[in-house]
Specification:
Layout: E1 4-8, E2 14-15, E3 31-35, H1 76-82, E4 91-96, H2 102-115, E5 120-124, H3 129-139, E6 148-150, H4 154-164, E7 168-172, H5 189-206, E8 209-215, E9 234-239, E10 246-254, E11 262-268, E12 271-274, H6 278-285, E13 292-299, E14 302-314, E15 322-325, H7 329-342, E16 350-356, H8 368-380, E17 392-393, E18 396-397, E19 403-404, H9 409-418, E20 424-425, H10 434-442, H11 445-451
Parallel strand pairs: 4-8, 4-9, 5-6, 5-7, 7-8, 13-17, 15-16, 17-20
Antiparallel strand pairs: 1-2, 1-3, 9-10, 10-11, 11-12, 13-14, 14-16, 18-19
The protein binds thymidine-5'-diphosphate and magnesium ion (MG).
Thymidine-5'-diphosphate (TYD) binds near residues 98, 99, 104 and 269.
């Protein structure tokens, strides 16, 4: 039986026994089980093993790199987030809360690949083959063509991979596989690392693209994908609230593409449907009531129009509530402070709620101006924009109450103009401060047009 060793993930301290608290650095819950590597038995003064031969360095320019052919999954939004499809032999991790749709999207992608003539394999450690079949029936006939093994033993899975040699394999989920010879329960940090490490070796040796599905808890980690991030080539995060229909898929790490891309999906009767033109949905759904504004956001290289809503209500609580859904809490606090200090709008005795409609998350300073406008509109009970069309805005708010330029202004303006949302309230030559922007925004479209 292989020996195991417990290594502190903080300080690297090694111990033959597990400790709740690392004897080295005193951190709690950092001891992780690892397979012990046999110590070299050969003596001698040389640091290298006797049998080791030196490797010959090669100039990078002379390295032969075949053009990266990619497997297209047929799910446009997924391919875009991956940087153009799945790279052969790569290891992709898809993380997300339970019920978000990880099995649905990977099942659909494998179905498309199988239909396109690729050899695929679905390893289900979580559900029985019958359960997976029920889902596949909902996704469509292409998903039913996927071969499946319901298996949790890592060695069996590796043997199956060796025998079947698929081009793309999904392991759902990495937390359910179990490596014999490791003591931890499936899903523990040591097990998850061992499983992922073994699968990585098989993937690289045999040129199998492996998609690992992993759960994330609300807090973000727990023996989960976090410990794998450095190991895999690509980390995709599936987000959204289970109760809402919209879900976003974004790359947190991508060795073969940009990490700025975001895919938008909707969960329907027949599985996940791509929302290629998300802007038109969100604009059509915008309410135009006080507190509502359209934000010209950037999701990676793609402009996205989303409705941002604010509610300001008298509070009985000290301190009052500040609830942010889809925008950064700290940026909301900053905008509230600037509103109070530089725009004469103190909301210290009000509860404040800000949310991005549809459950989308926008994480960029360019949302500041829209947040400020929505808050001012909600506080005054005055709608922004007009009966026919909502007001669109973007821009960063600085600490001194000035408006700051943000990246890709031209693309944001073009997207707004595509939906007839003009003029857009944004930092330009004439509107320089938050106070000016609020005055223009709250007094109707003509004012915005004049000011802009
Ligand atoms: P699932 O892919 O099983 O989530 P995960 O693997 O991330 O845990 O599916 C999530 C939810 O989606 C499930 O509660 C049911 C719902 N769903 C639909 O609404 N329509 C469908 O066609 C499918 C397949 C699932
Ligand atoms: Mg699942």
């Amino acid at each position: 039986m292989a020996k195991t060793l417990f290594v502190c993930s903080q300080c690297g301290n090694e111990s033959p026994k597990w400790h709740g608290r690392c004897p080295g650095c005193g951190e709690w819950n950092t001891m992780v089980e690892e397979r012990a590597v046999e110590a070299p038995r050969s003596g001698g003064s040389s640091l290298a093993r006797k049998s080791a031969k030196p490797a010959r360095p090669v100039a990078l320019a002379d390295v032969e790199a075949p053009a990266l052919a990619r497997y297209e999954t047929g799910i446009g939004e997924l391919d875009r987030v991956l940087g153009g499809g799945i790279v052969p032999g790569s290891l992709v991790l898809i993380g997300g809360a339970p019920g978000i749709g990880k099995s649905t999207i990977t099942g659909g992608a494998l179905g498309n690949l199988a239909t396109a003539g690729r050899r695929v394999l679905y390893v289900s450690g979580e559900e029985s083959a019958a359960q997976v079949k029920l889902r596949a029936e909902r996704i469509g006939p292409h998903a039913l063509t996927v071969p499946i093994v319901a298996e949790t033993d890592l060695e069996t899975v590796v043997a199956t991979l060796e025998a079947e040699r698929p081009e793309v394999c999904v392991v759902d989920s990495v937390q359910t596989l179990y490596a014999n010879g490791m003591t931890g329960a499936p899903g523990s940090v040591g097990q998850v690392r061992e499983v992922a490490g073994t699968l990585m070796r098989v993937a690289k040796e045999r040129g199998i693209a492996v998609i690992l599905v992993g759960h994330v808890t609300k807090e973000g980690a727990l023996a989960g994908p976090r410990v794998l991030e450095h190991l895999v080539d690509c980390v995709l995060q599936f987000e959204g609230e289970r109760e809402r229909t919209y879900r976003t898929l974004r790359a947190l790490k991508n060795r073969f593409g940009s990490t700025n891309e975001v895919g938008v999906f909707e969960m329907c009767e027949s599985g996940l449907v791509e929302v290629a033109d998300a802007s038109s949905r969100f604009v059509a759904e915008a309410t135009r009531a006080p507190g509502s504004v359209v934000l010209c956001a950037m999701e990676g290289s793609r402009p996205l129009l989303v409705e941002l809503q604010a509610l300001v209500a008298p509070t009985e609580l000290v301190p009052p509530r500040r609830v942010a859904n889809g925008v950064d809490r700290n940026r909301l606090a900053l905008v509230l402070a600037v509103l109070a200090r530089h725009a004469g709008l103190g909301l210290g005795s009000s509860d404040v709620f800000v949310s991005v409609a549809g459950g989308v998350r926008v994480d960029e300073p360019g949302a500041d101006l829209a947040v400020a406008l929505a808050l001012a509109s909600a506080a005054n009970g005055v709608p922004l924009g007009s009966e026919e069309k909502p007001l669109a805005a973007f821009g960063e708010v600085g600490l001194t109450g000035e408006l700051r330029y943000v990246a890709h202004a031209d693309r944001r303006l073009a997207e707004a103009s595509k939906f007839g949302l003009e003029p857009v309230l944004s930092p330009d030559g004439r509107i320089r401060t938050l106070r000016q922007a609020l005055r223009a925004g709250l007094s109707g479209a003509e004012q915005v047009a004049q000011a802009a």
